[in-house]
Amino acid sequence: AKVSLMQKNGRKISVIAHRGASYLAPENTLAAVKKALETSADFIEIDVHLSKDGQVVVIHDATVDRTTNGTGQVAQLTLEELKELDAGSKTDTAFAGERIPTLAQVLKTVKGKKKLLIELKKGEQDYYEGLEQKTLDVLKAHNATDWCVLQSFYDPILERIWQMDFMIPTHKLMMGKIPFLPIFFDHEFKFGSLDRYHEAAAINIHRHFASKSFITSLHNQGFKTFVWTEDDPKNIQQLFQNGADGVITNRPELIEKP
Ligand code: G3P
Ligand code: CA
Protein backbone atom coordinates (compact mmCIF):
# COMPACT_ATOMS: atom_id res chain seq x y z
CA ALA A 1 0.00 0.00 0.00
CA LYS A 2 1.13 3.53 -0.68
CA VAL A 3 1.94 5.86 2.18
CA SER A 4 -0.37 8.80 2.58
CA LEU A 5 1.10 12.13 3.64
CA MET A 6 -1.38 14.22 5.55
CA GLN A 7 -1.07 17.96 5.09
CA LYS A 8 -1.23 19.84 8.36
CA ASN A 9 -2.85 23.28 8.47
CA GLY A 10 -2.99 23.40 4.69
CA ARG A 11 0.79 23.33 4.56
CA LYS A 12 2.05 22.35 1.12
CA ILE A 13 4.21 19.27 1.16
CA SER A 14 6.36 18.50 -1.86
CA VAL A 15 7.58 15.13 -3.04
CA ILE A 16 10.67 15.28 -5.25
CA ALA A 17 11.66 12.31 -7.43
CA HIS A 18 15.43 12.00 -6.99
CA ARG A 19 17.27 11.60 -10.34
CA GLY A 20 13.82 10.75 -11.73
CA ALA A 21 11.99 7.71 -10.35
CA SER A 22 15.41 6.14 -9.92
CA TYR A 23 14.28 2.92 -8.26
CA LEU A 24 12.14 2.09 -11.29
CA ALA A 25 14.56 3.10 -14.06
CA PRO A 26 18.24 4.11 -14.43
CA GLU A 27 18.91 7.46 -12.73
CA ASN A 28 18.83 10.67 -14.77
CA THR A 29 17.51 9.00 -17.94
CA LEU A 30 14.38 9.90 -19.89
CA ALA A 31 12.98 6.53 -18.74
CA ALA A 32 13.36 7.63 -15.09
CA VAL A 33 11.81 11.00 -15.88
CA LYS A 34 8.82 9.34 -17.59
CA LYS A 35 8.33 6.95 -14.66
CA ALA A 36 8.42 9.94 -12.27
CA LEU A 37 5.70 11.65 -14.33
CA GLU A 38 3.43 8.70 -13.50
CA THR A 39 3.93 9.12 -9.74
CA SER A 40 2.47 11.64 -7.30
CA ALA A 41 5.77 13.57 -7.20
CA ASP A 42 5.50 17.37 -7.43
CA PHE A 43 9.07 17.82 -8.66
CA ILE A 44 11.59 15.76 -10.57
CA GLU A 45 15.21 16.26 -9.52
CA ILE A 46 17.98 15.95 -12.11
CA ASP A 47 21.73 16.75 -12.15
CA VAL A 48 23.42 18.72 -14.93
CA HIS A 49 26.93 19.01 -16.31
CA LEU A 50 28.41 20.64 -19.43
CA SER A 51 29.78 18.65 -22.37
CA LYS A 52 33.03 19.54 -24.11
CA ASP A 53 31.04 21.37 -26.80
CA GLY A 54 28.97 23.33 -24.27
CA GLN A 55 25.73 21.33 -24.15
CA VAL A 56 23.86 21.00 -20.84
CA VAL A 57 23.53 17.26 -20.19
CA VAL A 58 21.76 15.26 -17.48
CA ILE A 59 24.03 12.95 -15.49
CA HIS A 60 25.01 12.80 -11.82
CA ASP A 61 28.78 12.22 -11.84
CA ALA A 62 31.50 14.32 -13.47
CA THR A 63 32.55 11.15 -15.30
CA VAL A 64 30.49 8.69 -17.34
CA ASP A 65 32.14 5.62 -15.79
CA ARG A 66 29.63 4.62 -13.11
CA THR A 67 26.38 4.97 -15.06
CA THR A 68 27.35 4.21 -18.68
CA ASN A 69 29.42 1.77 -20.72
CA GLY A 70 31.98 4.51 -21.42
CA THR A 71 34.83 6.14 -19.56
CA GLY A 72 36.02 9.69 -19.14
CA GLN A 73 34.96 13.09 -17.95
CA VAL A 74 31.77 14.67 -19.24
CA ALA A 75 33.78 17.88 -19.74
CA GLN A 76 36.08 16.09 -22.18
CA LEU A 77 33.40 14.42 -24.31
CA THR A 78 31.28 16.07 -27.00
CA LEU A 79 27.53 15.63 -27.04
CA GLU A 80 27.92 13.30 -30.01
CA GLU A 81 30.37 11.15 -28.03
CA LEU A 82 28.13 11.18 -24.94
CA LYS A 83 25.14 10.14 -27.05
CA GLU A 84 26.97 7.01 -28.21
CA LEU A 85 27.02 5.70 -24.64
CA ASP A 86 24.47 3.35 -23.12
CA ALA A 87 23.14 4.87 -19.88
CA GLY A 88 20.71 2.05 -19.14
CA SER A 89 22.34 -1.39 -19.29
CA LYS A 90 24.65 -0.99 -16.33
CA THR A 91 21.66 -0.60 -14.00
CA ASP A 92 19.24 -2.94 -15.77
CA THR A 93 19.56 -4.57 -19.19
CA ALA A 94 15.83 -4.00 -19.67
CA PHE A 95 16.81 -0.34 -20.19
CA ALA A 96 19.56 -1.01 -22.75
CA GLY A 97 19.77 1.83 -25.23
CA GLU A 98 18.82 4.62 -22.81
CA ARG A 99 21.03 7.64 -23.50
CA ILE A 100 22.39 10.49 -21.42
CA PRO A 101 19.66 13.08 -22.03
CA THR A 102 20.21 16.75 -22.72
CA LEU A 103 18.44 19.23 -20.44
CA ALA A 104 16.39 20.22 -23.50
CA GLN A 105 15.15 16.64 -23.94
CA VAL A 106 14.06 16.46 -20.30
CA LEU A 107 12.21 19.78 -20.64
CA LYS A 108 10.41 18.51 -23.76
CA THR A 109 9.44 15.35 -21.86
CA VAL A 110 8.23 17.10 -18.70
CA LYS A 111 6.55 20.07 -20.47
CA GLY A 112 5.52 21.63 -17.15
CA LYS A 113 3.47 18.59 -16.09
CA LYS A 114 5.61 18.60 -12.96
CA LYS A 115 8.20 21.02 -11.64
CA LEU A 116 11.88 20.36 -12.19
CA LEU A 117 14.58 20.73 -9.52
CA ILE A 118 17.80 21.09 -11.50
CA GLU A 119 21.07 20.56 -9.59
CA LEU A 120 24.08 22.29 -11.14
CA LYS A 121 27.25 20.26 -10.58
CA LYS A 122 30.93 21.01 -11.09
CA GLY A 123 33.49 19.15 -13.15
CA GLU A 124 36.05 16.78 -11.67
CA GLN A 125 38.56 19.60 -11.25
CA ASP A 126 36.90 22.86 -12.21
CA TYR A 127 33.62 24.67 -12.38
CA TYR A 128 32.06 24.61 -15.83
CA GLU A 129 32.52 27.84 -17.75
CA GLY A 130 29.04 29.19 -18.47
CA LEU A 131 26.95 26.29 -17.11
CA GLU A 132 24.66 28.70 -15.24
CA GLN A 133 23.94 30.93 -18.26
CA LYS A 134 23.59 27.98 -20.64
CA THR A 135 21.13 26.29 -18.28
CA LEU A 136 19.05 29.45 -18.13
CA ASP A 137 19.22 29.85 -21.93
CA VAL A 138 17.86 26.31 -22.41
CA LEU A 139 15.07 26.97 -19.89
CA LYS A 140 14.13 30.20 -21.66
CA ALA A 141 14.17 28.54 -25.10
CA HIS A 142 11.65 25.97 -23.79
CA ASN A 143 9.48 28.44 -21.84
CA ALA A 144 10.37 26.47 -18.71
CA THR A 145 11.49 29.20 -16.31
CA ASP A 146 8.10 29.17 -14.51
CA TRP A 147 8.31 25.53 -13.52
CA CYS A 148 12.02 25.07 -12.78
CA VAL A 149 14.10 25.62 -9.64
CA LEU A 150 17.92 25.60 -9.62
CA GLN A 151 19.89 24.12 -6.73
CA SER A 152 23.58 23.61 -5.99
CA PHE A 153 25.99 22.67 -3.21
CA TYR A 154 28.44 25.22 -4.55
CA ASP A 155 28.28 28.87 -3.53
CA PRO A 156 30.14 30.16 -6.64
CA ILE A 157 27.45 28.56 -8.83
CA LEU A 158 24.61 30.07 -6.78
CA GLU A 159 26.32 33.46 -6.77
CA ARG A 160 26.60 33.41 -10.57
CA ILE A 161 22.89 32.60 -10.82
CA TRP A 162 22.04 35.46 -8.44
CA GLN A 163 24.13 37.83 -10.56
CA MET A 164 22.34 36.91 -13.80
CA ASP A 165 19.92 39.37 -15.29
CA PHE A 166 16.98 37.05 -14.59
CA MET A 167 15.16 35.89 -11.46
CA ILE A 168 14.68 32.16 -11.03
CA PRO A 169 14.13 30.36 -7.73
CA THR A 170 17.25 28.85 -6.19
CA HIS A 171 17.88 26.40 -3.36
CA LYS A 172 21.16 26.02 -1.46
CA LEU A 173 22.19 22.42 -0.84
CA MET A 174 23.98 21.98 2.44
CA MET A 175 26.16 19.11 3.62
CA GLY A 176 25.81 19.78 7.35
CA LYS A 177 24.25 22.36 9.62
CA ILE A 178 25.36 25.82 10.60
CA PRO A 179 25.89 28.07 12.48
CA PHE A 180 25.98 26.18 15.80
CA LEU A 181 29.33 24.41 15.43
CA PRO A 182 32.08 24.32 12.85
CA ILE A 183 30.46 21.90 10.45
CA PHE A 184 31.20 20.19 7.20
CA PHE A 185 29.59 21.93 4.26
CA ASP A 186 30.73 22.71 0.75
CA HIS A 187 33.28 19.98 1.33
CA GLU A 188 35.12 21.65 4.21
CA PHE A 189 34.65 22.61 7.83
CA LYS A 190 33.50 26.19 8.26
CA PHE A 191 31.91 28.52 10.73
CA GLY A 192 29.21 30.50 9.15
CA SER A 193 25.87 32.13 9.00
CA LEU A 194 23.07 31.53 6.55
CA ASP A 195 22.79 35.25 5.77
CA ARG A 196 24.82 34.82 2.61
CA TYR A 197 22.00 32.64 1.20
CA HIS A 198 19.25 35.22 1.63
CA GLU A 199 18.45 35.05 -2.11
CA ALA A 200 17.74 31.32 -1.86
CA ALA A 201 14.15 30.23 -1.28
CA ALA A 202 15.26 27.08 0.52
CA ILE A 203 18.19 25.42 2.22
CA ASN A 204 18.05 21.74 1.36
CA ILE A 205 19.53 19.47 4.01
CA HIS A 206 20.69 15.91 4.50
CA ARG A 207 18.24 13.65 6.32
CA HIS A 208 20.68 13.15 9.19
CA PHE A 209 20.24 16.79 10.17
CA ALA A 210 16.49 17.02 9.62
CA SER A 211 15.41 17.32 13.26
CA LYS A 212 12.37 19.37 14.18
CA SER A 213 14.56 21.97 15.89
CA PHE A 214 16.90 22.43 12.95
CA ILE A 215 14.02 22.67 10.47
CA THR A 216 12.30 25.19 12.75
CA SER A 217 15.49 27.23 12.90
CA LEU A 218 15.66 27.30 9.07
CA HIS A 219 12.01 28.39 8.92
CA ASN A 220 12.69 31.11 11.49
CA GLN A 221 15.48 32.41 9.24
CA GLY A 222 13.07 32.61 6.31
CA PHE A 223 14.03 29.47 4.41
CA LYS A 224 11.99 26.51 3.30
CA THR A 225 13.74 23.15 3.35
CA PHE A 226 13.67 20.01 1.24
CA VAL A 227 15.36 17.00 2.84
CA TRP A 228 17.51 14.60 0.79
CA THR A 229 17.47 11.61 0.28
CA GLU A 230 14.94 9.46 2.16
CA ASP A 231 13.33 6.33 0.78
CA ASP A 232 11.76 4.71 3.87
CA PRO A 233 8.07 5.73 3.97
CA LYS A 234 8.01 5.76 7.79
CA ASN A 235 10.96 8.12 7.90
CA ILE A 236 9.36 10.27 5.20
CA GLN A 237 6.28 10.66 7.40
CA GLN A 238 8.53 11.62 10.31
CA LEU A 239 10.28 14.25 8.18
CA PHE A 240 6.96 15.90 7.43
CA GLN A 241 6.06 15.79 11.13
CA ASN A 242 9.38 17.54 11.73
CA GLY A 243 8.23 20.32 9.40
CA ALA A 244 10.12 19.54 6.17
CA ASP A 245 8.64 21.35 3.17
CA GLY A 246 9.66 18.57 0.84
CA VAL A 247 11.38 15.23 0.66
CA ILE A 248 13.74 14.19 -2.10
CA THR A 249 13.26 10.44 -2.60
CA ASN A 250 14.25 7.65 -4.96
CA ARG A 251 10.84 6.04 -4.25
CA PRO A 252 8.13 8.58 -5.18
CA GLU A 253 5.98 5.66 -6.33
CA LEU A 254 5.45 4.71 -2.66
CA ILE A 255 3.77 7.98 -1.80
CA GLU A 256 0.13 8.80 -2.23
CA LYS A 257 -0.84 12.44 -2.18
CA PRO A 258 -3.66 13.29 0.23
O1 G3P B 1 18.80 16.78 -4.41
C1 G3P B 1 19.80 16.61 -3.48
C2 G3P B 1 20.69 15.45 -3.74
O2 G3P B 1 20.51 15.01 -5.06
C3 G3P B 1 22.11 15.82 -3.50
O3 G3P B 1 23.00 14.78 -3.63
O4 G3P B 1 24.71 13.46 -4.74
O5 G3P B 1 22.32 12.90 -5.08
O6 G3P B 1 23.27 14.94 -6.13
P1 G3P B 1 23.34 14.00 -4.95
CA1 CA C 1 21.32 15.66 -7.14
TrEMBL record:
Transmembrane segments: none
Protein name stated in the entry: Glycerophosphodiester phosphodiesterase
Originating organism: Nibribacter ruber
A GO term, aspect molecular function: phosphoric diester hydrolase activity
GO terms for biological process, alphabetical: lipid metabolic process
Annotated ranges, domain GP-PDE: 13-258
SUPFAM superfamilies membership: PLC-like phosphodiesterases
Gene3D superfamilies attached to this UniProt entry: Phosphatidylinositol (PI) phosphodiesterase
Pfam families: GDPD (PF03009)
Lineage: Bacteria, Pseudomonadati, Bacteroidota, Cytophagia, Cytophagales
PROSITE patterns: GP_PDE
